[in-house]
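Researcher: Sequence recovery benchmark, item below. Answer with residues only.
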């Protein structure tokens, strides 16, 4: 089924827009989309998240299944590399963890600032989303891809340098006072 009316109503989301210019948020997106999709698709849309399920299972969308698998593999690679860096035990990577995912995780973990690492991972995820995006721009998978992109942009806009520095110093001071 084609979703011409829905997709044509969705505003373009630019990753580089200022914080005030985001044309709609995730709640508004879900509200608009729910008018045009089936109840089954609405259930999938309501469950759409940047955090993949711990146990991969079929969502009913091949696009989402691949996205969640790659995101889960990225998170596992990040966890393993961070554990190794701290000389802690780590678990084996999932079978589908590719060299580009491991490379992205290593690059992010090796960055000096957490904000730089988050920005790098954000750009990596946007590229991955673009690579996985369905060719049919009017499919339900395109709607899901739009939702994920919107969530990624919203998430990155929450990061503020001053708040991060304050939080970092509070955590650091707490750690030092506990030693």
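Model:
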């Amino acid at each position: 089924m084609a979703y011409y009316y829905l997709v044509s109503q969705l505003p373009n989301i630019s990753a580089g827009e200022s914080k005030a210019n985001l044309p709609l948020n995730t709640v508004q997106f879900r509200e608009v989309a729910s008018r045009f999709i089936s109840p089954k698709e609405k259930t999938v849309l309501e469950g759409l998240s940047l955090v993949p399920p711990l146990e991969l299972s079929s969502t009913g969308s091949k696009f989402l299944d691949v996205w969640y698998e790659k995101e889960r593999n990225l998170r596992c690679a990040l966890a393993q590399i961070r554990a190794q860096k701290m000389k802690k035990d780590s678990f084996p990577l999932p079978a589908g963890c590719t060299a580009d995912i491991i490379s992205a995780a290593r690059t992010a973990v090796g960055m000096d600032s957490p904000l730089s690492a988050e920005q790098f991972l954000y750009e990596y995820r946007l590229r991955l989303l673009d690579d996985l995006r369905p060719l049919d721009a009017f499919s339900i998978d395109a709607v899901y891809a739009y939702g994920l992109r919107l969530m990624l942009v919203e998430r990155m806009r929450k990061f503020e340098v001053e708040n991060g520095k304050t939080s970092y110093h509070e955590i650091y001071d707490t750690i030092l006072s506990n030693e």
